[in-house]
C-alpha cells in the first residue's frame, strides 16, 4: 500500500470511531461479540498478551486477567481506547493495559516478550502481511499463541458475493448511520476485495515459521479464525 493509500485508509478508519461498534454489530448480524469471545478463549489464560490493531478497544476491553499491550498506528484510536479499556480493567481489578503507537510490520518490542498475540479485523489492513506475521512470531515466546480473525474468502465467487454484501447492505446502513454519502465503510469493501482466502493465510503462517496452524470459517465471508503456535 502506497503512502497516499495509507493516509486515505487512516482518515477512513478515524472517521469510523464514533459509530464503529454500532455498524460492526449490524454488519455481523450481532455475531461480533461471540467472535471476540472465541479469540479471548483461545489466547493463553495468563501472561502477557499483545493486540495488534486494537482500534477503539472493542476487543481489548474484554481481555480479563492477563497483562495487555494494545498497539495501533493511529493516535486517535489509542486516545479512544485507553480510557475505555482501562476503566473496565480497573473495575475488574486487572492491571492497566499499556497503549503503544506502532505498526504490525515493525513491532517495537524485544524478541520473546509475549505469551499471546492477537489481531481482530486489522490483519486485512496490514500493508505487508508476511512481515507483520514474522514480527508477531519474533515477539512471541516459544510455544506462545497467535489468534487472528478477519473476513477471508472461500473462493472467487464467494469474494464477489461478499463484495456485493458490503457495498450494498453494509454500505446502505453505514450511509444512513453516518448521514453522508461518502461514508468511511467504503474502505472496508476495498480492503476486503484485496484480501485473500482462508487457505492463503494458513500457508503464509506456515511459511513464516508458525507451527500447528489451523483455521476455521466461523461465518462465511465475515469471519475466519486462524490459530498457530510459535
Ligand atoms: C477495524 S479496527 C479493529 C479494532 C479491534 N481490533 C476490534 O476488535 O474491533 C482495525 C485497526 O487496525 C489498525 N491498523 C491498520 N493497519 C495496521 C498495521 N499495519 N499495523 C497495525 N495496526 C494496523 C487500524 O489503525 C485500526 O485501528
Descriptive report:
The chain has 230 residues and is α/β, with parallel strands linked by helices. The protein has one domain (3-151, 196-229): Rossmann fold. It contains eight helices and seven strands. The protein has helices spanning 3-16, 20-27, 32-42, 75-92, 129-139, 156-178, 186-194, 198-208; strands at 48-52, 67-72, 98-101, 114-120, 140-150, 211-219, 223-229. Strands 3-2-1-4-5-7-6 form a seven-stranded mixed sheet, sandwiched between helices. Helix 6 runs antiparallel to helix 7 (186-194). The longest helix has 23 residues, at 156-178. The two termini are 27 Å apart. Bound molecules: S-adenosylmethionine. S-adenosylmethionine binds at residues 13, 52-55, 58-59, 72-74, 77, 103-105, 120-122, 125-127.
Overall outline: globular
Helicity level, as a percent range? Answer: 40-55%
Distinct compounds present: S-adenosylmethionine
CATH class: Alpha Beta
The SSE string, one letter per element, is: HHHEEHEEHEHHHEE
CATH topology: Rossmann fold
At CATH level 2, the architecture is 3-Layer(aba) Sandwich
Instruction: Give the termini separation.
Output: 27 Å
Q: Runs with pLDDT <50, length 5+?
A: none
Total count of helical runs of at least 4 residues: 8
The order of strands across the largest sheet is: 3-2-1-4-5-7-6
Mean pLDDT reading: 87
Q: How many domains make up the 3D coordinates?
A: 1
* CATH homologous superfamily annotation: Vaccinia Virus protein VP39
Largest sheet: 7 strands, mixed
- DSSP, total strands: 7
**Class of secondary structure makeup:** alpha/beta
Give the radius of gyration: 17 Å
